[in-house]
């Protein structure tokens, strides 16, 4: 075990080829959607990193590449100092044990034909645990860690007999039964009722403490990210536009896009005074990207120099990096014609 | 708490849903009973048939019982050469069922395997397999059977082979589209994250979700195979050594008495219609099981 | 303008009768915007559908009246309702984005709606289309776009434009922004609020997201288990809610403005099963302050101060409740209580 970051992502890229339409038939150039475009980040041991962004920002793709549900087009991911690409079959299996994932939809994440026991025992069986007593013990243990107590009450239930929150707990129990080092959670609470979201978030917090888990929390919801995460990386059209301590980024956003994102979150406080930032909500075109900064077409502060932006992350506040070429003080709202 | 007290829906086998559906669906019940009768007749055909299919019958004076109307002794009458039509129809049941079920099993087996592999892996594997399917779609059935029986011998097995060769394509397509939708479910992703291999995912996660659909397709395939065998036999390309309904109608037609001897034409014709109808009713009820949207009607 | 009196709605299912909405009353003034919030299954969407008489086949209004301009809509003929819908009461629903017909342009669909419900000419109808598109912030050229050419946010705006096109007295918006991204949602909410003030139409806004209500509604109704738990002016409610359920929700909600770093506390347990007839308060099973009175008698909605009503027997002890509700242990005790109740039955 080395002392560096547990996960290190270097120059990660994922391009999807775009199907040619008829009128493009004579267009020789193959177009790509750059879902993830040259991003680098590090996650420390025991840290929870939030990946924020709208749909199409590439946050889910990034998560899925790290758990190897998708292959990267290029780039390197190091887990504990070891690159994932140079894997043998045995290595790959070991990796599967160490990185697990929790998905968004609690209704679809569990196989409706498996009961709770079978669901959680499945990863153990895949990884060659044969002893019945050991499987039973570890399944019950995970269930109790996921706060489904007493475990015996739940073992024989099927997904449709559980509430949304309970299903998500079963999914978490399945995720931790192999005792992974890394847990990737993709919008795990967005489909749950508000009154029980806090339970799942608190559970994830406790998991980190109890199992020393490192987490990547993928979400569009800044409020839950702020609550759960140490650091936040804001993505826009495949690029990281800002990364830094979660509280700082939300309180003092440096990148215009982060500002827009923060100001769009509804707040349940009648006295809250919002820093209104007006933005064009036309959808970003994922194929024909602008020169330079990708947020330029919608950015309320855009200037001509933005075409020369190369998305290099600059440290604007302590440990807080922004890809905007201007400092916060230099941003002047553009007069909208 | 109320939900928990009820038995799990997943534990209800397909058979159970089918069974409870039968109670409401009279036609399906009728189909099941009729089908069971046919199967009974088919299995015990040899014992049930009073005479051999080619045995000629003579009256007291020693002349052939030519084209006799139905009577107690010969319930469906006799043919122009004095053969017992009742016995022929009974024995033909076995042929129809054998062809129907064997071909259907073969077709669904091949079709499902191709469909699952194509749908699960996608990419070039999918493309290659689906082009093969397209190729088989382009072959017309009757000419294919004629050619096949010209190259090989006309036999029941060749007909089963021909039917299977030309109908797995349908099953493959339907299964593939189903697999495509299942393969995107998060719980399949979860299985992959847990480290499950392709074979395990296909066998443990995808197959159980496809089986109801496959069963339904199989029922329709039984029908199709029976009809195909009957048509081929009627056209005279059937196995001359095996009695089948199509063959009875073929001889009846060739003899030139098809308009005159109604008792010769009607029983095999009716038998085909009834068997197909019974399987259709069963399949329709199965369809309601597979597709919950139809269940409430 | 709209007065809902003792409205009750039942669904007949295979397992019995489900009382989705029970004895709900509220009214809506001209130009007012009212938010109805609650968790899934609390009956908020059912109320919206009942107002427009769009309940599914197995649902029926089992009691109460819906007075629109003094006229009871319950029992009106389907034909009459069809005329009222769209032209007088318009619905913007969560699934509306998929309700646009893919083979006609958006402009065509809005124009046809106008022509079908009023007797103005084609040119006037077109002018109206341009006007409402301007209101929702869509360019005029978008009128000739087909639905698939529009993004989610633009489609949702087109739907809102369609709802506005006949100048309805009331807009019923059922989770209109749930499927949209944060930035787009924020923009559309701002737009809805602006339009609603500008043309002084009334609005009923149904959502699970309490902070959205805070942003755009003047009055709020909190529903739980088919009943109204609390009804108040937004400002009054968000500063100091009265009902224990509302107090619980306050703790359960992460906020980007929070700087205390306190741990969130969710409300233990699950919503009640509406299939079973149960006496007492709907929230008592999950309520940390429930007494035997709460278990046996249903609390009425009582006035706690001007424009603020709550359905709780102990509104007089609210200060004590507020202090205790902030404490994590208060809710943990409920969790223990529920677990103890469940265990012997297993």
Write structural notes for this entry.
The complex is a heterotrimer of chains A (337), B (297) and C (346). Chain A is of the alpha/beta class and 337 residues long. Chain A has helices at 59-66, 89-98, 116-126, 132-145, 164-176, 194-211, 222-228, 246-251, 256-264; strands at 7-17, 32-43, 48-52, 74-79, 82-83, 99-102, 182-186, 214-219, 231-236, 239-245, 314-317, 320-322. In chain A, a hairpin with a 2-residue loop joins strand 4 (74-79) and strand 5. In chain A, helix 3 runs parallel beside helix 5. The model of chain A has no long low-confidence stretch (mean pLDDT 86). Chain B has one domain: MetI-like fold. Chain B contains 13 helices and no strands. Chain B has helices spanning 2-5, 14-24, 26-43, 45-48, 85-121, 123-137, 141-151, 156-183, 186-193, 198-234, 245-255, 262-290, 292-295. The model of chain B is unreliable at 1-11 (pLDDT under 50). Chain C has a domain at 237-345. Chain C contains twelve helices and twelve strands. In chain C, helix 5 (152-164) packs parallel to helix 6 (182-199) and helix 9 runs parallel beside helix 11. At the A-C interface, helix 6, helix 7 and helix 9 of A face helix 5, helix 6, helix 7, helix 8 and helix 9 of C.
CATH architecture of chain A: 3-Layer(aba) Sandwich
Spatial separation of the terminal alpha carbons of chain A: 58 Å
By secondary-structure content and strand pairing, the structural class of chain C works out as alpha/beta
Report the total helices of chain C: 12
**Total DSSP helices of chain A:** 9
Helix share of residues of chain A?
25-40%
- The neighbouring-strand order within the major sheet of chain C is 6-7-8-3-9-10-12-11
Counting DSSP E segments of at least 2 residues, the number of strands of chain C comes to 12
- Tally of discrete structural domains of chain A: 1
- Molecular shape of chain A: globular
Mean pLDDT of chain C comes to 86
Radius of gyration of chain C: 22 Å
How does the helix and strand content of chain A classify structurally? Answer: alpha/beta
- The main sheet of chain A orders its strands as 6-7-8-3-9-10-12-11
The CATH superfamily of chain A is known as: P-loop containing nucleotide triphosphate hydrolases
For the report, how would you describe the main beta sheet of chain A?
Answer: 8 strands, mixed
The biggest sheet of chain C amounts to: 8 strands, mixed
Main interface pair? A-C, 43 and 48 residues
Output the CATH class name of chain A.
Alpha Beta
Low-confidence stretches of chain A: none
How many strands of chain A?
12
């Amino acid at each position: 075990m080395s002392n560096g970051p547990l996960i290190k992502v270097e120059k990660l890229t994922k391009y999807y080829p775009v199907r040619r339409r008829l009128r493009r038939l004579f267009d020789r150039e193959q177009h790509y959607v750059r879902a993830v475009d040259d991003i680098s980040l590090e996650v420390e041991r025991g840290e929870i990193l939030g990946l924020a962004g709208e749909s199409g920002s590439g946050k889910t793709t990034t998560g899925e590449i790290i758990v190897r549900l998708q292959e990267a087009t290029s780039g390197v991911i190091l887990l504990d100092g070891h690159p994932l690409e140079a894997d043998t079959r045995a290595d790959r299996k070991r990796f599967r044990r160490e990185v697990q994932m929790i998905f968004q939809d609690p209704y679809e994440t569990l196989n409706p034909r498996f009961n709770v026991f079978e669901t959680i025992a499945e990863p153990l069986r895949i990884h060659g645990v044969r002893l019945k007593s050991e499987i039973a013990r570890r399944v019950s243990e995970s269930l109790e860690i996921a706060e489904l107590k007493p475990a015996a009450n739940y073992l024989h239930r099927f997904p449709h007999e559980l509430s949304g929150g309970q299903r998500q707990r079963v999914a978490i129990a399945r995720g931790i039964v192999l005792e992974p080092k890394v847990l990737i959670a993709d919008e795990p609470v967005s489909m749950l009722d508000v009154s029980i979201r806090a339970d799942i978030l608190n559970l994830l917090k406790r998991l980190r403490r109890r199992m020393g888990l490192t987490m990547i929390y993928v979400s569009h919801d800044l409020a839950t990210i702020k609550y759960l995460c140490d650091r936040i990386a804001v993505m826009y059209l495949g690029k990281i536009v800002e990364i830094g301590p979660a509280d700082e980024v939300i309180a003092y956003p440096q990148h215009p896009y982060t500002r827009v994102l923060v100001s769009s979150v509804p707040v349940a406080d009648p006295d809250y005074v919002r820093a209104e930032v007006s933005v064009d909500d036309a959808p970003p075109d994922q194929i024909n990207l602008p020169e330079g900064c990708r947020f330029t077409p919608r950015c309320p502060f855009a200037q001509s120099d933005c075409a020369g932006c190369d998305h290099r992350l600059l440290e604007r506040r302590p440990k807080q990096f922004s890809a905007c070429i201007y400092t916060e003080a230099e941003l002047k709202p553009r007069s909208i014609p | 708490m109320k939900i928990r007290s009820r038995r799990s829906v997943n534990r209800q086998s397909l058979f159970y849903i089918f069974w409870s559906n039968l109670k409401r669906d009279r036609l399906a019940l009728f189909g099941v009973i009729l089908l069971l009768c046919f199967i009974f007749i088919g299995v015990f055909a040899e014992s049930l048939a009073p005479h051999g299919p080619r045995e000629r019958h003579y009256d007291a004076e020693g002349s052939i019982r030519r084209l006799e109307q139905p009577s107690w002794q010969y319930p469906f009458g006799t043919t122009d050469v004095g053969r017992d039509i009742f016995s022929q129809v009974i024995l033909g049941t076995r042929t129809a069922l054998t062809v129907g079920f064997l071909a259907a099993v073969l077709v669904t087996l091949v079709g499902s395997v191709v469909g699952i592999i194509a749908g699960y892996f996608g990419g070039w594997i999918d493309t290659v397999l689906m082009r093969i399917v397209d190729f088989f779609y382009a072959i017309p059935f009757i000419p294919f059977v004629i050619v096949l029986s010209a190259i090989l011998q006309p036999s029941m097995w060749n007909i089963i082979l021909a039917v299977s060769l030309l109908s797995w394509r349908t099953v493959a397509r339907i299964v593939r589209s189903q697999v495509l939708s299942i393969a995107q479910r998060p719980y399949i992703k979860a299985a992959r994250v847990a480290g499950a291999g392709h074979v395990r995912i296909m066998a443990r996660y995808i197959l159980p979700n496809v089986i109801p659909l496959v069963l339904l397709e199989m029922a329709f395939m039984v029908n199709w195979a029976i009809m195909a065998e009957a048509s081929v036999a009627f056209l005279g390309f059937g196995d001359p050594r095996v009695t089948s309904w199509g063959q009875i109608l073929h001889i009846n037609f060739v003899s030139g008495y098809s308009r005159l001897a109604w008792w010769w034409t009607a029983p095999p014709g009716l038998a085909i219609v009834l068997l197909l109808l019974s399987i259709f009713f069963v399949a329709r009820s199965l369809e309601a099981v597979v597709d919950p949207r139809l269940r409430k009607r | 303008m709209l007065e809902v009196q003792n409205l009750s709605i039942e669904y007949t299912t295979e397992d019995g009768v489900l009382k989705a909405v029970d004895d709900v009353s509220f009214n809506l003034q001209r130009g007012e915007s009212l938010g109805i919030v609650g968790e899934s299954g609390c009956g908020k969407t059912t109320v919206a559908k009942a107002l427009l008489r769009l309940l599914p086949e197995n649902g029926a209004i089992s009691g109460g009246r819906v007075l629109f301009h003094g006229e009871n809509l319950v029992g009106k003929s389907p034909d009459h309702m069809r005329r009222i819908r769209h032209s007088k009461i318009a619905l913007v629903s969560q699934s509306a984005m998929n309700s646009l017909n893919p083979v006609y342009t958006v402009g065509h669909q809005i124009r046809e709606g106008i022509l079908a419900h009023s007797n103005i000419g084609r040119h006037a109808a077109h002018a109206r289309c341009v006007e409402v598109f301007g209101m929702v912030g869509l360019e005029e050229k978008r009128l000739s776009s087909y639905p698939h050419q529009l993004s989610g946010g633009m489609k949702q705006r087109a739907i809102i434009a369609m709802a506005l096109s006949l100048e309805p007295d009331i807009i019923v918006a059922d989770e209109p922004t749930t499927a949209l991204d944060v930035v787009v949602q924020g923009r559309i909410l701002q737009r809805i609020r602006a339009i609603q003030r500008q043309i002084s139409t009334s609005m009923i806004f149904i959502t699970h997201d309490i902070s959205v209500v805070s942003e755009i509604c003047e009055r709020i109704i909190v529903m739980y288990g088919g009943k109204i738990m609390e009804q108040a002016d937004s400002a009054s409610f968000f500063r100091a809610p009265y009902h224990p359920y509302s107090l619980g929700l306050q703790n359960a909600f992460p906020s980007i403005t929070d700087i205390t770093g306190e741990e969130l506390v969710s409300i233990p347990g699950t919503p009640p099963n509406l299939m079973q007839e149960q006496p007492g308060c709907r929230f008592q099973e999950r309520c940390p302050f429930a007494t035997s009175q709460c278990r046996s008698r249903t609390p009425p909605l009582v006035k706690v101060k001007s424009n603020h009503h709550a359905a709780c027997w102990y509104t007089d002890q609210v200060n004590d409740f507020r202090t205790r509700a902030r404490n994590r242990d208060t809710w943990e005790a409920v969790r223990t209580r529920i677990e103890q109740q469940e265990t012997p039955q297993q």
